[in-house]
């Protein structure tokens, strides 16, 4: 089997072999090629030591030199090159305390996570697949290499990765691999919340997020105050908006969304968006122009549009809401303060208490939402005189 690699990847492989070393493209890039997907990045494994790699290539960065990894920088892209190795103890359940460099690629492949990620390729030898990863890819199976308990105890992030790959690829997790992952969920407390959130995002935006159900049904994240609760089986139907999907699953689990997101150290923008969508999910569909304008005022067009798409996906009748929304937009009916044909400066000479100008503007907006034809400067100045 021949894989068409980018020129800069082939050049790196050739440069290593021309200097007397073995070199293979390995991991996710090979897996993606075999699945007719476009890889995002490439990794190379080799019997060249980090010192050798640094001497061979013009521009390198010692990104993980303790574990044998050097990043080669090229104009077309960066490539991580790692020396064949076996790993020592994993005292923190995340990274090996030490590594031993190897001369045999077989030993290097055996220390990896899943069979589908332990296939390597070069132009001279083609595929090298001693752990039958290609067979698992063809059968759409995620299988830990060797003893799954050992693999997950070494690096607990592999537990989430198994479910993330299942969600992204639509693969099943082999029974002993899944059973070990569920049994070892308590080890996830050793993983940084930032890394957990990164994989959760990938799960939520995947094509089969429902495949991650065992994580939620078995309380993998109870330490983050996410209670045991099934992943909604219909989540894959939702708009692929991260904040909307967060709001949907966490409302279903009846947890405090803000507390959970703070525990995960999520950025403030995503927290705000998620809370906004959580509020929208509790609201009835707007039935007329006025109700649409209040939704637009409080939540904006983009959030309203996502919310309506959600209802449409589940065959809820949004025809009245869509008609009203189109009327409001086509007629340019005012629904925000910036739509008012009057400003705070215009009111300075009319309002005694300058601190009350903002409140007056809000009341004027409330009026023109109901009476859009009153949105002229002259009418608004007259109207403000009657505002208490």
Q: Could you explain how this protein is built, in words?
A:
The protein has 388 residues and is α+β, with helices and mostly antiparallel strands. Among the domains are: 1-138, Beta Polymerase, domain 2 (2-Layer Sandwich); 283-330, no CATH class; 339-384. It is elongated. The chain is built from 18 helices and eleven strands. The model has no long low-confidence stretch (mean pLDDT 95). It has helices spanning 7-18, 28-34, 50-56, 105-110, 133-138, 148-154, 157-169, 175-183, 193-204, 213-217, 242-252, 257-263, 268-281, 289-313, 319-330, 344-347, 357-370, 377-384; strands at residues 23-26, 42-46, 60-64, 69-73, 78-83, 85-87, 99-101, 120-122, 126-128, 141-142, 172-173. β8 (120-122) and β9 (126-128) form a beta hairpin.
SSE topology:
Layout: H1 7-18, E1 23-26, H2 28-34, E2 42-46, H3 50-56, E3 60-64, E4 69-73, E5 78-83, E6 85-87, E7 99-101, H4 105-110, E8 120-122, E9 126-128, H5 133-138, E10 141-142, H6 148-154, H7 157-169, E11 172-173, H8 175-183, H9 193-204, H10 213-217, H11 242-252, H12 257-263, H13 268-281, H14 289-313, H15 319-330, H16 344-347, H17 357-370, H18 377-384
Parallel strand pairs: 2-5, 10-11
Antiparallel strand pairs: 1-2, 1-8, 3-4, 4-5, 6-7, 8-9
CATH class of the domain at 1-138: Alpha Beta
CATH H-tier superfamily of the domain at 1-138: Beta Polymerase, domain 2
Total beta strand runs? 11
* SS-derived structural category: alpha+beta
The value of Rg in angstroms is 28 Å
CATH architecture of the domain at 1-138: 2-Layer Sandwich
Distance between the termini: 80 Å
Q: Which whole number gives the mean pLDDT? A: 95
Please provide the ordered H/E string of secondary-structure elements.
HEHEHEEEEEHEEHEHHEHHHHHHHHHHH
User: Helix content range of the residues, please?
Assistant: 40-55%
């Amino acid at each position: 089997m021949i894989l068409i690699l980018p020129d800069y990847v082939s050049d790196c492989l050739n440069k290593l072999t021309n200097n007397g070393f073995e070199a293979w493209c390995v991991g996710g890039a090979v897996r993606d090629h075999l699945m007719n997907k476009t890889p995002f990045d490439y990794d190379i494994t080799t019997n060249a030591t980090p010192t050798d790699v640094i001497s061979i290539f013009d521009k390198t960065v010692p990104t993980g030199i303790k574990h044998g990894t050097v990043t080669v920088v090229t104009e077309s892209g960066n490539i991580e090159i790692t020396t064949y190795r076996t790993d020592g103890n994993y005292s923190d359940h995340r990274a090996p305390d030490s590594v031993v460099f190897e001369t045999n690629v077989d030993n290097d492949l055996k220390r990896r996570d899943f069979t589908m990620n332990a296939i390597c390729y070069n132009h001279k030898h083609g595929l090298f697949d001693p752990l039958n990863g290609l067979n698992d890819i063809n059968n759409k199976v995620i299988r830990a290499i060797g003893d799954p308990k050992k693999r997950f105890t070494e690096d607990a992030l592999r537990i989430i990765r198994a479910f993330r790959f299942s969600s992204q690829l639509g693969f099943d997790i082999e029974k002993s691999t899944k059973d070990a992952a569920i049994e070892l969920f308590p080890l996830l407390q050793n993983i940084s919340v930032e890394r957990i959130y990164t994989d959760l995002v990938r799960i939520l935006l995947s094509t089969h997020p429902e495949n991650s159900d065992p994580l939620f049904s078995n309380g993998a994240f109870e330490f983050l105050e996410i209670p045991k609760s099934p992943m909604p089986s219909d989540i894959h139907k939702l708009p692929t908006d991260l904040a909307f999907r967060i709001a949907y699953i966490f409302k279903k689990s009846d947890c405090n969304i803000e507390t959970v997101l703070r525990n995960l150290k999520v950025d403030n923008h995503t927290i705000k968006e998620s809370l906004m969508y959580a509020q929208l999910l509790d609201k009835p569909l707007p039935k007329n122009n006025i109700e649409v304008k209040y939704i637009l005022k409080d939540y904006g067009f983009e959030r309203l549009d996502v919310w309506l798409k959600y209802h449409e996906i589940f065959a809820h009748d949004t025809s009245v809401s869509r008609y009203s929304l189109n009327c409001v937009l086509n007629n340019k009916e005012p629904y925000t303060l910036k739509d008012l044909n009057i400003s705070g400066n215009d009111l300075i000479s009319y309002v005694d208490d300058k601190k009350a100008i903002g409140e007056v503007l809000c009341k004027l907006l409330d009026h023109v939402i109901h009476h859009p034809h009153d949105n002229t400067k002259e009418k608004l100045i007259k109207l403000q005189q009657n505002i208490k």
